[in-house]
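Input sequence (162 aa), recorded before submission:
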Amino acid sequence: MMSPMKDQPQAEALVHHLMAQLTREAVTSARRQRERHEERDRATHRGSRIALGILLPVFVALTALNVATSAVPTALGRDDTGGDDAARQAALSFAVGEVELYRDDNGKVPADLSMLDIPERGEWRYERRSDTDYEIELTDGAVTIGFDSAIHSDTLEEGATP
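Predicted structure, token format:
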């Protein structure tokens, strides 16, 4: 049997060897884990770059299409029905004003619009209901607006819009 003194350097060498081996294994394991994380991150970033490369041009194209289809009507002050609401309302207000002026001058509304200077815009429909009541409509594109004197007779003032 060996003495405890002789076994001590061998035990220390064995412990040192085992510690070095455990350290190498821990370092190797940490490197492998880091490499796996880096590879996963590269794959994620690569997927993000591919998605960005596809989605960005699609977004730009859709935005350009949206601007191209809406910029022209907006720039001209027109809506998608082929007309301008303010211009329609102005034409109707002018026609109502002409009918009201005729009624004030003659004591009755005209039989039809041919007697008046009505704007040449869209399609007009006029119905004389009595000497004082009438209905007038303007159809312009897909939009129809109108005025009924029986409904608005008490609220119509000079310069007011129907």
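Checked by second reader. The CA atoms of residues 78 and 84 lie 5 Å apart.
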